[in-house]
Amino acid sequence: MPSKTPQDSVNGEKDVEMKDAALKGGKGKKVKEGEEEMTVVVPPSKKAAAAAKQNGAGSGDVDVDMDGPVEDGAVKAEEEVDPVVKTVADIKSNFPLLERAVTLFDARFTLRALRSISSIRKRLTPDILAQVITETYPSTSPAAKSLLVAIDRENAAFTKASASSTEMEIDSDAKSNKAAKKEVKEVIPEIDIFLGILIQISYLDNKINQKGAVFSQHLVERIHSLNRRTLDSLSARVYFYYSLFCEQMAPLPPSPASPVVSIRPALLSALRTATLRKDVDTQSTIIVLLLRNYLSTSHISQANLLLNHTKLPATASNNQVARWLYYVGRISAIQLNYSDAHANFTAATRKAPSSPSAAGFSQSATKFLLVVKLLMGDIPERATFRDPSMERALQPYLQLVQAVRVGLLDEFENTIKQYSETFRRDGTYTLILRLRQNVIRTGIRMMSLSYSRISLRDICIRLKLDSEESAEYIVAKAIKDGVIEASLDREKGFMKSKEVGDVYATREPGEAFHDRINACLALHDESVKAMRFPMNQHRLELKNAQEAREREREMAKEIQDGDLDEDDLGGEFEGM
Q1: Cα 53 to Cα 398: distance, rounded to the nearest angstrom
Q2: Which tens digit of pLDDT belongs to each residue from 55-67?
């Protein structure tokens, strides 16, 4: 069996010629004369391929395969996509979702479009928005012109043919005009509002607050004029950014002349309208915005009045529930309802999203929770301060907890002086000032555990109080509140501590276990409420069950009449 040499083959492969006489396997038939010989190409071994690859650069006998590099270059060219084109495509990919939301009347598609904004936000520019608008709308659209004016691109050239130009190109026949009108697809208002939200975000990221507030006001008026239920999720987002613009405009919120005060009538009117229309998304969003608005200007009584007259919808989103619990907890803490504030802050930290973008909310809620725990006389766990996402932000509060835990008044006051700006910025400064009495109570409790009997003069010296009378008053108040278990002898001037009993003999472990059970049951109830089921599935099951019972009755009746027997049924039949 002759074979070619490696020099005669391509890349060192061996071409083996199989002649007629060599084909002995199988049927053993000979090939007729004149037919071509069959050549079998045997792939080279790994060693031969490696040697050919090394010698291929210098040898002229080896043919170079040009297809491989060209394909690799094409793949690389396809991978390197223009970011502007990709951003425009990402924005346009949300338009079919909005159309499906309108067609199917399902808000989940709208929420999917809104969730994509976080990935598009960093790449937004006025030029990209102008390109999307000109490629989506016809040149005669007033909505497109208003959006282009908002981003200062009113002279942008439209690439989509208008309805009038399309109709002029077609014959003046009546049928052809109707067909042309059908070809021109109308842009739904949901796409207008979605692009308006992108423009709001562009203003917010570039800190153009004045123009953003004016544009948001026009967008709100447009939503009111449309009155479409498919705009509920979008309108909630519009009001959210509208409130943010007003918060960042001068003068800033603590001032009574701040723009946040001027938008309260508009928010209250929108809340009334959303409640009448049963718009859950807008209603829950505006309630949270109003609470934030009142707290920013320290109008606690008005915020409490709003809580007494409104209620957050039961089907509100998890993010809005977390925000609502946070603001209600702040109001309760200011009004000295520490137990309610503790429950609200705990629920807010549990409902807070776990994404890194929501780390600021979790940190703020945790700070208020730590201060409320100290006001209630509890000491937070050390594991709270070891969380990597919380460790740096909670450093001032760690020193505050250490000062309160030991009961040293000097360290407590030094910590307040050192981190006063941080506490003011966090909004916890006024609550921390109330901890002075708790520091004194903690010091008294530590002394009651350390000494079986201690004089009031020593208490006054250790806590650096003004007089023994104030020390006597504080000790008596601590005994009455149950902070310590001791007795006070006024004649001899000392405090006598009682023996410490077993904590498991008290009701404290049972109460802690009861709180955990309540939290688990509440989580179970919320999970059941959040479950989704197919529409009218129970009716279909009832209908199938009813039809099965009717068939069984008919078969039983035919058996009784003698029309059927067990052989016709194909087996044994169990009667009714």
Answers
A1: 66
A2: 444 444 434 344 4
Give tens-digit pLDDT for 94-136. 999 999 999 988 888 999 999 999 889 888 899 999 999 999 9
Question: Helix count (H) and strand count (E) of the chain?
Answer: 30, 5
Can you read off the two tokens belonging to residue 190?
């949901």
Return the residue matching tokens 């990935």: 119
Write phi, then psi, for 3 (nearest 5 degrees). -145, 155
| CA gap 318, 294 in Å, rounded | 22
Q: State the Cα–Cα distance between residues 22 and 28, nearest whole angstrom.
A: 10
Average of per-residue pLDDT across 371-399: 88
pLDDT the model gives residue 565: 56
Three-state secondary structure of 294-329: HHHCCCHHHHHHHHHHCCCCCCCCHHHHHHHHHHHH
Question: What angle in degrees, to the nearest 10, is found between the helix axes of 280-296 and 318-334?
Answer: 30
Question: Model-level pTM greater than 0.85?
Answer: no
Helix, strand, coil shares of the chain as percentages rounded to 5? 65, 5, 30
Residue 495's identity, in one-letter code, is: M
Closest CA to 152 of 176, 179, 165, 133: 133
CA 358 to chain centre: 8
Nearest Cα neighbor of 202 from 258, 250, 251, 153 is 153
| Residue of 142, 191, 185, 133 lying closest to 163 (CA atoms) | 185
Q: How many angstroms separate the CA atoms of 96 and 112, rounded? A: 11
Query: Are the CB atoms for 231 and 270 separated by under 8 Å?
Result: no
Asked if residue 21 has pLDDT above 60, the reply is no
Predicted confidence (pLDDT) at residue 442 exceeds the cutoff of 90:
no
Mean pLDDT, the chain, integer: 78
Pair 283, 233: CB distance under 8 Å: no
User: Which residues are CB-neighbours of 172 under 8 A, at least 6 positions away?
Assistant: none
Query: Nearest 5°: phi and psi at 301?
Result: -65, -40
Q: Please state, in angstroms and as integers, the Cα–Cα distance from residue 512 to each residue in 31, 338, 442, following that order.
A: 94, 17, 21
187: left (phi over 0), alpha (psi -120 to 50) or beta: beta
Q: Name the E strands within 35-158.
A: 38-42
- CA dist 274 and 269 (Å) reads 9
In the block, tokens 């009378």 appear at 469
Instruction: Please report the pLDDT score of residue 196 as a whole number.
Output: 93
Query: pLDDT tier at 443 (50, 70, 90 boundaries)?
Result: confident
Cβ distance 101 to 230 under 8 Å?
Answer: yes
Query: For residue 342, what are the CA distances in angstroms to 311, 372, 498?
Result: 20, 6, 30
In sequence order, the 6+-apart residues with CB closer than 8 A to the CB of 203 are 209, 211, 212, 215, 245
pLDDT digits 0-9 by tens, 152-209: 888 878 876 444 444 444 444 444 444 444 445 688 999 999 999 999 999 999 999 9
Both tokens of 26, joined, read: 């199988």
User: For residue 81, what pLDDT is reported?
Assistant: 74
Beta pairing partners, 487: 496
